[in-house]
C-alpha cells in the first residue's frame, strides 16, 4: 500500500517560513511530501556551466533539506523534465493533492496548466496560491477594469488598497511533513554545472538596511542597496516581510517593491512584451546591431569608464548597481543603437537576481519602448552620470581600475551618438504614424 500524501511543489518560494502554499498544504488532511524539480527544459538553455543562479538555488535547496531533516522529513529533489518528475512521485505515493504558489511568467503558466491537466486525469487536485507578491493579476485594475500601464496611478491604488492582512505572515508549521530519511540531492556536476563564487546565506532584512536607503541608493560606490533582489527572485525571503519592514522604515524602498509588482502584472497581462516592444511603433527602429560593438559593451571595453565598470562588475560578480544598470542599458540602445533585446538577453544570462518581468520592463524603459518608459529623447550622458553619482571615481576605480589606459578613445562620441539615436527613433515613430 502506498502512503496517502499531499505534495508541496517548491519553485520560487525556497523557504519553510511564511510560505502561503506550504501553509495550505500542511493544513490539509495528509502528510506533506516536499518536492523540488531541477527542470531540464530550463537548465539545458543555460550556456555557462558556472551559472551562479543554479549554484545559488542548489545551496538554497541544501539549506531547505537540512531544515526538513530537523522536522524528520526530506525534500524530494528531481533532475529531469517536470512531467517525468511528477510521474515518479505518483509511482511512489498515493497523492491526494498537489500544492504550490503562483508563477506569472508565460512559460510557467503553460507548464502549470499542463501539470494540472495531467493530475486531473488521476483525479488529483492541483491548488495554487498567491505568495510572491502582495497584489497579482487582476487585484489592481483601473476603474474601467483594464490593467494599469503607468506606474504612478498603479502605485497609488496599490497603496490605497493595502491592508495589514495583505502582509500578515502565513504561520507555517514544522509539523505535518511526511516522515522519512533524508534523500540525496543531485550534485551540480551531475546536472552539468560547477561551483561558483556565490555563497548562500539565509537572507535577513533589518530596519538598518533600509532606514536611509533613499539617501544612498543612487551612489554605486557606497553599495548601500539591500542586495535582496535574488532573495525575492527565488523566494528565500518573503515579500510580506519586506513590505512590513518597508512600511515602518523607508517609503522609497517600498516604492521599489511596488515597481516589482507593477512589472509582474504587465508581464501577466501583456505576455507579448517578452520579445516585442510594449509600444509597437518602436519595433520599427532600424537598429545598427554591430556585433563587434556589442562584444565591446559586453566585455566593458567601450571607453566610457562608468559603462565599462558596470559591465565588469556584472561579469565578475553577477550583480550591477541599479543606477549603473540604467546607464549601461541606455548606452547600448541609444549610443550604439543596438536592439534592447540583445542587452536584455545578456543580463538574463549574467544577473544573479534576474527576474524576467523586471529585466524586461527596465530594458524597455531604458530603450523608450516600454510602458511608462523614459521618453526616447532622454539619453543618459555617461560622463554627466559619473560626475553626479561617482564624482571621486571610487566605483570606477574598483571595477575598472585601468580605465585611463584600456581604450585610447571611446567607441563612439556622445554628441554624435545622441544625434544619431534621435534621428533613428524619430524616423521609426514618423513611419509608424504614416
TrEMBL record:
<dbReference type="InterPro" id="IPR006050">
    <property type="entry name" value="DNA_photolyase_N"/>
</dbReference>
<keyword id="KW-0157">Chromophore</keyword>
<dbReference type="InterPro" id="IPR036155">
    <property type="entry name" value="Crypto/Photolyase_N_sf"/>
</dbReference>
<dbReference type="InterPro" id="IPR014729">
    <property type="entry name" value="Rossmann-like_a/b/a_fold"/>
</dbReference>
<dbReference type="InterPro" id="IPR002081">
    <property type="entry name" value="Cryptochrome/DNA_photolyase_1"/>
</dbReference>
<dbReference type="GO" id="GO:0003904">
    <property type="term" value="F:deoxyribodipyrimidine photo-lyase activity"/>
</dbReference>
<keyword id="KW-0456">Lyase</keyword>
<feature type="domain" description="Photolyase/cryptochrome alpha/beta">
    <location>
        <begin position="4"/>
        <end position="134"/>
    </location>
</feature>
<comment type="similarity">
    <text>Belongs to the DNA photolyase family.</text>
</comment>
<protein>
    <submittedName>
        <fullName>Cryptochrome/photolyase family protein</fullName>
        <ecNumber>4.1.99.3</ecNumber>
    </submittedName>
</protein>
<dbReference type="Pfam" id="PF03441">
    <property type="entry name" value="FAD_binding_7"/>
</dbReference>
<keyword id="KW-0274">FAD</keyword>
<keyword id="KW-0285">Flavoprotein</keyword>
<dbReference type="InterPro" id="IPR018394">
    <property type="entry name" value="DNA_photolyase_1_CS_C"/>
</dbReference>
<dbReference type="Pfam" id="PF00875">
    <property type="entry name" value="DNA_photolyase"/>
</dbReference>
<dbReference type="InterPro" id="IPR036134">
    <property type="entry name" value="Crypto/Photolyase_FAD-like_sf"/>
</dbReference>
<dbReference type="InterPro" id="IPR005101">
    <property type="entry name" value="Cryptochr/Photolyase_FAD-bd"/>
</dbReference>
Amino acid at each position: 500500500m502506498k502512503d496517502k500524501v499531499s505534495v508541496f511543489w517548491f519553485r520560487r518560494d525556497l523557504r519553510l517560513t511564511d510560505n502561503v502554499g506550504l501553509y495550505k498544504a500542511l493544513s490539509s488532511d495528509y502528510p506533506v511530501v516536499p518536492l523540488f524539480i531541477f527542470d531540464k527544459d530550463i537548465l539545458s538553455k543555460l550556456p555557462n556551466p558556472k551559472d551562479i543562479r543554479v549554484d545559488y538555488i542548489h545551496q538554497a535547496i541544501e539549506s531547505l533539506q537540512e531544515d526538513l531533516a530537523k522536522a524528520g522529513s526530506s525534500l524530494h529533489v528531481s533532475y529531469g523534465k517536470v512531467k517525468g518528475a511528477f510521474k515518479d512521485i505518483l509511482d511512489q505515493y498515493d497523492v491526494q493533492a498537489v500544492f504550490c504558489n503562483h508563477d506569472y511568467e508565460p512559460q510557467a503558466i503553460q507548464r502549470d496548466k499542463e501539470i494540472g491537466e495531467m493530475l486531473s486525469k488521476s483525479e488529483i487536485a492541483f491548488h495554487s496560491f498567491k505568495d510572491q507578491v502582495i497584489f497579482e493579476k487582476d487585484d489592481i485594475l483601473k476603474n474601467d477594469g483594464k490593467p494599469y500601464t503607468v506606474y504612478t496611478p498603479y502605485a497609488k491604488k496599490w497603496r490605497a488598497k493595502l491592508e495589514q492582512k495583505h502582509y500578515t505572515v502565513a504561520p507555517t508549521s514544522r509539523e505535518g511533513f511526511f516522515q522519512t530519511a533524508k534523500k540525496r540531492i543531485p550534485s551540480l556536476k551531475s546536472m552539468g554545472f560547477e561551483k561558483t563564487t556565490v555563497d548562500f546565506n539565509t537572507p535577513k532584512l533589518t530596519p538598518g538596511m533600509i532606514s536611509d536607503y533613499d539617501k544612498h541608493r543612487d551612489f554605486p560606490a557606497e553599495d548601500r542597496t539591500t542586495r535582496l533582489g535574488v532573495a525575492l527572485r527565488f523566494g528565500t525571503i518573503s515579500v510580506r516581510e519586506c513590505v512590513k519592514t518597508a512600511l515602518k522604515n523607508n517609503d522609497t524602498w517600498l516604492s521599489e517593491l511596488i515597481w516589482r509588482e507593477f512589472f509582474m502584472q504587465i508581464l501577466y497581462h501583456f505576455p507579448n512584451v517578452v520579445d516585442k516592444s510594449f509600444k509597437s511603433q518602436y519595433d520599427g527602429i532600424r537598429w545598427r546591431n554591430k556585433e563587434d560593438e556589442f562584444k565591446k559593451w559586453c566585455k566593458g571595453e567601450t571607453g566610457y569608464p562608468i559603462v565599462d565598470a558596470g559591465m565588469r562588475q556584472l561579469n565578475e560578480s553577477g550583480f550591477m548597481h541599479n543606477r549603473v544598470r540604467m546607464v549601461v542599458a541606455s548606452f547600448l540602445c541609444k549610443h550604439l543603437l543596438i536592439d534592447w533585446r540583445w542587452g536584455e538577453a545578456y543580463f538574463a544570462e549574467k544577473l544573479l537576481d534576474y527576474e524576467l518581468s523586471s529585466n524586461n520592463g527596465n530594458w524597455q524603459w531604458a530603450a523608450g519602448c516600454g510602458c511608462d518608459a523614459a521618453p526616447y529623447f532622454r539619453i543618459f550622458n555617461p560622463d554627466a552620470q559619473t560626475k553626479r553619482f561617482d564624482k571621486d571615481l571610487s566605483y570606477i576605480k574598483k571595477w575598472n581600475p585601468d580605465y585611463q589606459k584600456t581604450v585610447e578613445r571611446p567607441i563612439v562620441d556622445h554628441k554624435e551618438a545622441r544625434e544619431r539615436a534621435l534621428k533613428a527613433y524619430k524616423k521609426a515613430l514618423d513611419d509608424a504614424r504614416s
